[in-house]
Specification:
Layout lengths: L5 E7 L5 E5 L9 H4 L3 H4 L33 H18 E6 L20 E5 L1
């Protein structure tokens, strides 16, 4: 909710590059799911799972898994540290991870447990 009248530097007009007036008490929201799949930012294959795209891409405000600014997730550093630690420990303990699913992986975005699982085989190092 905007507290006062404000003008965003871009987002208005037919091409989205003109200033945009936001009156006070206007509800403002954004869709991170759609934002993270924008072809103009991430390429024509924005829907494809391609981790290597992050090797050189250093996004700013167009990629917000933990939001940003004064409302950034307070658990961001903890979550990233835990994910990094777990990934490294898996790499240290196992020399190979193979898919054992009978069907290809499909993305399922949900806030709660979806009931979907990924079957893998881990080969000790």
């Amino acid at each position: 909710m905007s507290i006062t009248d404000t003008v965003l530097p871009r987002g208005g007009g037919t091409d989205g590059t003109s200033p945009l007036f936001i009156p006070a008490k206007t509800s403002v929201g954004w869709n991170l799911f759609a934002m993270h799949r924008r072809e103009d930012l991430f390429g024509k294959d924005a829907e494809d799972f391609r981790p290597e795209r992050w090797e050189k891409l250093r996004p700013g405000w167009e990629y917000l898994p933990f939001n940003g600014g004064p409302r950034i997730c307070i658990g961001q550093q903890f979550a990233l540290t835990e994910a990094s630690y777990t990934t490294i420990r898996l790499m240290q303990e196992y020399k190979d991870i193979e898919s054992r699913d009978p069907k290809p992986w499909t993305e399922c975005i949900t806030i709660t447990a979806s009931g979907q699982a990924t079957k893998v085989s881990l080969t000790p190092a």
